[in-house]
Structure formats: structure tokens, C-alpha cells
Amino acid sequence: MPARFTRSQRPAKAMYIVETTAKTASASKYLQQLCKHFAHKVPATFTPKAGEVEFPFGHCTMTADDGQLSIRCKTQNPDNVPVLKGVIDSHLERFAWREELKLQWQQNELAPETSTGQAEG
To answer: What is the rounded distance in angstroms from the CA atom of residue 13 to the CA atom of residue 97?
Structure first.
């Protein structure tokens, strides 16, 4: 018989996290433009200061403040990391073509996720 776990006993899942920031006076504009565009195909919510996009291959959060756009993406599959980065890169390059923004991504340590979906740490 397979092992059964209560909700609090489920093994943690590793999350692969990548982050980037872009210095731009148009951070809020790009955040809203990205989220509005992605919302045509996947669940996305946003305000002028924050946004979230739920791709089939990962989850991205964005914040816009003080002349900078911050983006944090996470996925359970390491093969999806380049996909997430590629989707964000290609769309932001298209929307911010006047500025020629080039994102520098940093991969963080793996963060185990609890059964409630919140990263520990």
C-alpha cells in the first residue's frame, strides 16, 4: 500500500527560482503591458505596482517601484527555467525596444516549498 501523508507531512517540493531587475523610468508601464498581454492566454493579475502571471511552466511575480522593474519566476522543473526567462526576455525586449533593456537573471538556491505552496526560508 502506498504511503499516505497528511497535508502537513507531505514532502517538500524543490522550487527553481530566477530573479532580475531592470532600471527604467517606465517600470509600471512595462509591468502592466506584460501582464495585460499574457492575460490573453494565461491567468494574470496586476496593478500599476505589482503583477502575477501563472504560466503552464511556472509562476512569475513583478513589482514596479523607484525606477525599477523586478521580476521573480519560479518553477518545479529545472527545464522550465530557460523557458520562463525566454518568454519574459522576448516580450520585454519587444515592449521596451526604445530602451533596449537586457535582463541579467540570477538563479537562487533551491527553495523547498511546503504543502501550502509557500516557500520556506
So the answer is: 37
